[in-house]
Amino acid sequence: MTEARAPAEQRGTSPRDAFRRFMVRPESPALVFLALLVVAFSLSSDKFLSGSNFESIVISVAVLGIIALAVNQVVLCGEIDISTGSMMGLCAVAAGAVALSTGGLVLPLLAGIAVGAFCGAINGALVTAGRIPSIIVTLGMLYALRGVILLVTGGTWITGVPEEARVLGTGTVLGVGYPVIILFVLFLVMELVSRHSTWGRNVFAVGGNRRAARLAGLPIDRTRFLAFVLVGMFVGIASIIYLGRAGSVQTNTGTGLELQVVAAVVIGGTSISGGRGSSLAALTGAVLIGVILNGLILLGVPGIWQQGVLGALILLAVATDVLRRRLVGDKT
Amino acid sequence: MSAAAAALRRLSFSREIVLLGVLIVLVIVMSLLSPLFFTVGNLLNTSRFFVEVGLMALGMTLIIITGGIDLSVGSNLGLSSVAIGFSFAAGLPLPFAIVLGLGVGTAAGLFNGLFITLLNLHPLVVTLGTFALFQGLAYGATGAEAVSDFPDWFAYFGQAYFLNVVPGQLFIFIVAVAVVWLILSRTRFGRYVYAIGNNEEAARFSGVPIRKVKVAIYSGIGLLVGMAAVIYTSRVYTARGDSGLGLELDVISAVVLGGASIYGGSGTIAGTVLGVLIIATLRNGLTLAGVPSTWQLFVLGVLLLVAVFLNEFFRRREE
Amino acid sequence: MSLSDDPGAGGAATVAEAPAIFRLRNVTKHFGGVTAVEDVDFDLQAGEVHALVGENGAGKSTLMKMVHGLYAPDKGTLEVGGETVEFSSPRDAEAAGIAMIPQELDLFPELSVTENLFVGRHRPRTRWGTLDRATMRAEARERLRSLGVDLDATTTVKGLSAANQQIVAIARALVGEARAVVMDEPTASLTEREVQQLFRIISELTSGGVGVVYISHRLDEIFAISDRITVLRDGHHITTAPADELDAEELVRLMVGRPLNELFTRSPHSPGEVALEVRGLGRAGEFEGVDLAVRRGEIVGLSGLVGAGRSEVAQCIFGIRPPEAGEIRVDGEDVRIHSPQAAMERGIFYVPEERRSQGLILPFSIKNNITLSILDRISRFGFVPRAERQTADRFAKDLSIRGAKVSDPVSRLSGGNQQKVVLAKSLAREPSILLLDEPTRGIDVGAKSEIYRLIDDLSKEDKAILLISSELEEVLSMSDRIVVMREGRVTGEFKRDEATQENVMTAATGGRDRSGSDSSREGEAND
Fold first, then answer.
1. Helix (H, G, I), strand (E, B) or coil at A233
2. Which chains touch B (3 or more CB pairs under 8 A)?
3. Which residue in the set C91, C105, C131 is minimally distant from A196, CB to CB?
4. ipTM here
5. Given this structure, which CATH class describes domain C1-14+21-96+215-257?
6. Which residues of chain B are under the pLDDT cut of 50?
């Protein structure tokens, strides 16, 4: 039993209480850090704060952000998914192939989502029914799916994707790019689902206290399975955006994406041990990564340092999570 | 116990026999796939590849027995490799550069070990972070360039032949296997490793120095990675930041294939060695048959899943 | 409230009995070779508070776990509302209106109060099929208000005080339309004021017809709140009586009163120097101000109930967790013990309470378990010598470990022999100070007396022994001195010839002792 005693049970209305409530939220450190970074970068480079630059940042992380929103749910359940990079490559291949053969937008989109959901279902089944730890399942799938991509494409790229299929990547609505819109719409959807659906609340319970969840009779396996399928579906959506922007699919499309996704989730404030976090955390983390990478480019730091920066950020994020918990006196 | 259950029991006890059988079958299959496979020259050359994976798998066995995991070994290999190459290119005499490479590998492993034990974090997420960090350092520090200008004698590690036929690094591997096997099965350190993996709390109550053991195994695999980096760099005669990418899959699969439970508590060096041989045979045979490496990764990925599933399936039947 | 007196020796139901909320008839439950509960009757009437008391191991929690669907009785039946039922899981029990509030509360710290109330339960939905959070919040507030409590239903549970968390747990039971609520040690972390608040809430519950089973060791509370009291001892039902027909003295006697049959006679001896001394030892939330001393050749019994903090004190001395206040002295010297290795170097060894999860590594052989603590002493250049086997054999023989060869897995042994392996491991280290935590729990009489003889022999070898035990007979017959703890503090100290079952039990439970002074809740500040 935690020993923390609340200073006041009533919902205070003073600014200080509101501030404290804000700081306690899982995504606050990331939001604050993001704000600081934005200020720092705009001071050091006047190119930074232009609207087009900011929009291009968000567009560049749209794919990352959409997948992160879904992987966030998996992490909240207490599991992990590092197969999303290969999954995206495969979904993009499927969508691209359908776009080339039948054209249009809807069919390729559905193809991407279907393939993604299928892969997610395999992950989910192996974790729940197969009782294999999710790290191993998704590690194996990461490589297995990469091989499937090669198998299916025979090593050739998919190029010349017709314009109509690329709308979601390149088109705009009222001057705002589709990727940005889709990202925010999906964010709102996830917030709604997370707060207002039974499954959404169960995810928190299953990840937060699995034993109590079991005793309360929650459908633990079904909850986790659905989270993995959700990842697959969101990867499918993201792949259409990727297809739109890139116009082609290579055999190594998506390589390394899985790490960025986990980084986004963790850096944004969702706890790797489950039960704590939010969709806002995943979104913030994705944007934060975009800002950092963009800022590094503007500062002239060579792109090859990206991987290292990502790794350092992950370590920093989990270390601060531990220290924060120790400071709060959380003995869990 | 029913006859079927008794048979299953015998099966799991002689897991090494099963693996040996699988290996033999695999060798036969590969020979059928390509006439080049079953030649002495090729078989011995296969050993060049598996020594690198094998050295790392030896260390990974101890880590997995304690219930941990290390996803950063591949990136660590790249980091150690560029440490050797680039310090040499910068003027450091090659023998010192080699020692530096070993040091970097060990230091990276030590970093993992300290991060995990001092902050009480799960090895999974820490080594996921260092997987990226080490790779980033390797790339960033070297500008993604490569060094290939080594003196002739450097090839001795990776390309030499002993008695004109047997690859030099095989001896290093055999010695390493013997040492790690001794440690795991005959020393108190090995006993501590098994104790921690089976019941960490009871081990603590028995006075087992848990933190020290954990830091030691992560540093140990770091050293083995450093050794593998020396051999690898010598074999391909180039030091690049992206060396070793994806090797963690081979390493973890070998250990799991060899019978170690991913949850910790069990695992043997003999099993790991057989697992390494199987994977090396698979890779070599498929390469000779013209199968591209991505497809090989597919097979490996599926193999990992099947191996873990079967492991746990039989383990639960036994209970 | 008038209830027919039901002294409860498994009689058949009379036709005129009102259906109880639930009733256990002649239930028996075994675990392996141990009988936890034998032929016990228990029933709960609507609107009553029924206290369930007994020493540790008396069978209280087993009994309630059967009511809550975690176990099924081996013999006997469970009736709910007059109908015989069989529960296969806690969900069935909750559906039948029986809610359990365990000591650990089983809440979700990261979720809000409202969500905790509704987890796993039917949640109201809006027109669009989403969760109707406004309705849930309103209902949560209503429930809390009906309990007479004003809590913000949207705060996360982990920020609440222990008392308020408990209120949330109770409210959760109510959302599930519970008609029976079982509370296990509900006041363990509460202040005086919070206890009164809890009692008010319990009255609210009972006036609404809900029945409450109140499991507690605190006799004053039991007499303040309950209508009936049932006493269990060694898995048997001793009595069920209205609360006003009993008093504290009698209750204690019923709880512990067995013929004090001395399993063992302690050898005469004279203790030597003080080997271990502890002053003002404290750890937040576990224990405080603990003073203890153990001399060479002396056996000090540390008595008290579950949760008194005894294991925590011993584990602190052994270096599992560092002390936050106070000091430890070994042989007169101040020592800082920050790890088990440091404790072992000072000659201290701790034999843990939970044999299977803390004392043994079950897949290991007997030999490997015994030598685990001395590997650093017997190994040469890190290698474990073949002679290890002889060492293990010697210990197995000395301790009469029977049932398998030392190379066999320890899981094959009986409980008593497994305990001997744990003891062998500690003795292999040749400690001069032994901390034994429930060394004879769950083992048969024969093995027990062997272990008693062993402990006696050890004291003859001038070892200082701290014997933590909840079994009064054991403590009384083995110890030279008895120290009693309650709720993290030392509440009594008796020499061997002064100690009786009653005064030890009184110090352990805080019931009124013969002199009439109230030893409960002195100086308990509002924390």
1. helix
2. A, C
3. C131
4. 0.85
5. alpha beta
6. 1
